[in-house]
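Hi P.,

Sorry for the delay on this. The queue was packed all week, but I finally got your sequence through. Input first:
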Amino acid sequence: MKADVMGDALETVLVTADQIDQRLTEMAAEIDAAYVGKEPLLVGVLRGAAMVMSNLALKMESSLAMDWMAVSSYGSGTKSSGVVRILKDLDTDIAGRDVLIVEDVIDSGLTLSWLISNLESRKPASIRLATLVRKVGAANVDISVDFVGFDLPNEFLVGYGLDYAEHYRNLDCIGTLAPHVYGG
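Then the structure:
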């Protein structure tokens, strides 16, 4: 979906489709350089990372494997309790493998911190992290991110996997959702 069909639902375009494409090309080259002579296992975190991981993998030159996880943190209302459950686990044994977690966005980092700890307990050779978006100033925990597409403001973002109520994931850019859409 293109931004011009959004009407007044999209307040501001922060990153265009062309900028995303260019940055994913650069990230793919950075990741290829980091995994020379290795075959990384890309682990996408569903649902948001589907577009990022697919398009990133298409741009990579490395031999790679892919798998998916879905996790949910839940609590009351919009605040996470820090309790995480696995909705879909990996089909691949990661023991001894070089794992690259691929995310669409890192904000508080609470769920991701839990996920990294969970995957580390499975004894991979290494775990690295790639994200298309890192929200500046949103992290509640310290997470080392190896490959970052864009550092963006801690605002309500949609597009390229980022959603509001499961909508706008297929927007080809990243932008801020107008407050009237979500009652803000």
